[in-house]
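Exercise 4. Each item below gives a protein and its sequence. For each, produce the structure-token representation.

Item: Pectate lyase superfamily protein domain-containing protein (Jatropha curcas).
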Amino acid sequence: MSLPLLPIFLCFSIFVLLSRPLAVSGEVTCSGIVPVRYRNDKISITDFGGVGDGRTLNTKAFSEAIYQIQHLRRRGGTLLYIPAGVYLTESFNLTSHMTLYLARGAVIKATQDTSNWPLIGPLPSYGRGRERPGGRYVSFIHGDGLRDVIITGENGTIDGQGDVWWNMWRQRTLQFTRPSLVEFVNSRSIIISNVIFRNSPFWNIHPVYCSNVVIRYVTILAPHDSPNTDGIDPDSSSNVCIEDSFISTGDDLVAVKSGWDEYGIAYGRPSSGITIRRITGSSPFAGIAVGSETSGGVENVFAENINLYDMGVGIHVKTNIGRGGFIRNITVSDVYMENVRKGIKIAGDVGDHPDDDYNPNALPVVKGITLKGVWGEKVLQPGSIQGVKNSPFTGICLSNINLHGVPGPRSTPPWKCSYVSGAALEVSPWPCSELATTSQVGSCSDHI
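Answer:
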């Protein structure tokens, strides 16, 4: 499957990411929240009958290899080595204290036979499958209740062969919610690095109810018309580090979530301590997103050094009536965007509901959003900030933002604002009057 057409420098960035080592001296990083463990015990998928011919089904080999890792419990854990070749398999579960290592030229490829794909229950913070009522198909590579797990290697590939799932979605023949490519649930101390992820059926990498997660030096690819193929979605998780990666998909590149309406409110687990830096990518949707499922709350998100090309929305903070929860202390800085439909969007009317039982009086609280050092070229509309009537967005602080439009006369106002207060400093084109009042500058002075 071919990549979307990208500028030469974007293609070069893929090459750089794929050739980078695990660490770069002197580079600012948050990856130290999870120590890299060296496994003395090593086994190969070929020891269990694995065949990398692209035709043989290797489900039994993966199952037996991981069973051995789980039950032998070698001191320091075990590394499962995947040599060069294409290993077709059904979905499989990981276990604690293991490394899944893909050699250069290794491909773990999902079968396109969906008839036997296992089902699991809905996430409690969602109350049902995200697309369909009831349960959901388990992720291609899955982990539940795990700790000390690494997925890494020499830039081998995990390929979800998602087009069969995308077609079911388009034809409305899905019975349950599509599977993610990789999902960790209730897990901690997870590292995902130096792997290419391709053609996910649904969201690509989904850590949910997790803590201490590092996702670094990954490349995530899916066609721009592939539905809901979000790149990385930290969900009701804490201490997540996302760095040095290239993402080109059919939906948001990185989206921070925390549950859906009444179910997310009841579960009450926020996403917090999320760091995102040095991400380059392209998508018809958002580059850096918060939401729209934020009912458990999202706080303390920091994103910097982001490069976005051919985007729908550069920076998108999104919620809705019925979500409840909070979005606070979000900082995004040093962003370059080019050929973007809308540069900045902060909105209280985005996203659907799981059912009719959501509480229309559960209003989100959005405050303390700081955007600074944003430069855009060929931006069709600079931005919009539209809060909720009975819960205005406060402390919206914009500084040093230059969003240059396409040549020719502008047919619409550069900014649209409602139910919002905050401050703006050195913003071009000048934003709405709600952010231009000097009386609000004090509340933003610590941020801008």
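Check: The CA atoms of residues 157 and 196 lie 5 Å apart.
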